[in-house]
Amino acid sequence: MTTDCLYRFVLDDLDISGALVRLGPVWQELLEDRGYPLPVAELLGELSASSLLVSSNLKQPGRVTIQLRGNGPISLLVIDCNEQLQIRGMAKCAQEIVHGSLRELLGDGQLLLSLDMPSMREPYQSIVPVDSETVAQVFEHYLGQSVQQPARLFLAVSDETAAGLLLQKLPTTEERDADGWARAEALAATVSRPELLSLAAEELLPRLFPEETIRLFAAQEVALNCPEDWQKAGALLRTLGAREVYAALRENGEVVIRDEICNREYRFDAPAIDELFAIPVTTSPTTRH
């Protein structure tokens, strides 16, 4: 299966929908220079795959931001996914972390989901407690509650790949086959970690559902959403005001804007600050490091 792609599919005879996602270079780039402990990287990979699968399940395109917050060794996991399936994300955690369940690592945790669609006056937000042991269970519960239909989610993460398989019952499933959902979720549960991480969609889905008619839609490309944006960084400094910015410049010799979610720094020296406050707002600084 090509990496950095999401495939939606339908089991036609059962009226069951699904999606399959696998991240490769995008996942590796998201982790680059982060230095996260292995348990944190694994959970962030699972959240990345889950966020894309949730995004693909929306009735209309929109931006989905998903956070897992807690008071444990991991205080924050966040993934932002826009309507083009472009993602960015980060984690905040202790320096040293041992493997444990999601609940053990988050402590008293919450799932925060924000959904922003063009048709909305303001973003929809949902906050629910995290009582589950895994990321998959968190989203199975959330999807089951939000659309009133059961869902199954299977996730796998390695150093190079993050992958996920979502299966969701539709309102008409039982009309087509009373036992169809039970059979489909049992078959999906046989997926192995190596299969999920490596097999092409055209090979994996027939292997899991050998007797079903599978309608596989065209692949949707997934990309990282972390463009360099000096203009935005400069605009932030302008909102702080010249007095505060020049005070920071005198104290530190430069002013640094830190973009945590994209792991990037914007450094402004004295000439850049002078230019920033001497020119129209629409122009960005030219002296950068």
Structural summary, described in words:
- There is one protein chain.
- The protein has 289 residues and is an alpha+beta fold.
- It folds into two domains: 5-224, Hsp33 domain (3-Layer(bab) Sandwich), CATH 3.55.30; 230-278, Alpha-Beta Complex (CBS domain Like).
- It contains eleven helices and 14 strands.
- It has helices at residues 25-31, 38-56, 102-106, 135-147, 173-176, 180-188, 193-198, 201-208, 230-240, 242-252, 270-278; strands at residues 5-11, 16-23, 63-69, 74-81, 86-93, 110-116, 124-129, 151-157, 162-169, 214-216, 220-221, 223-224, 255-259, 264-268.
- A hairpin with a 4-residue loop joins strand 13 (255-259) and strand 14.
- The longest helix has 19 residues, at 38-56.
- The two termini are 40 Å apart.
* The CATH topology of the largest domain: Hsp33 domain
The CATH homology group name of the largest domain: Hsp33 domain
Largest sheet: 6 strands, antiparallel
Q: Which CATH class of the largest domain is shown?
A: Alpha Beta
Unreliable residue stretches: none
Distance between the termini: 40 Å
The value of Rg in angstroms is 22 Å
* Total individual domains: 2
Beta-strand segment tally? 14
**What global shape is seen?**
elongated
Strand and helix order: EEHHEEEHEEHEEHHHHEEEHHEEH
- Portion of residues in beta strands equals 25-35%
Indicate the structural class.
alpha+beta
**Which architecture name of the largest domain does CATH use?**
3-Layer(bab) Sandwich
Helix content: 25-40%
Average of per-residue pLDDT values = 90
Q: Helix count, per DSSP?
A: 11
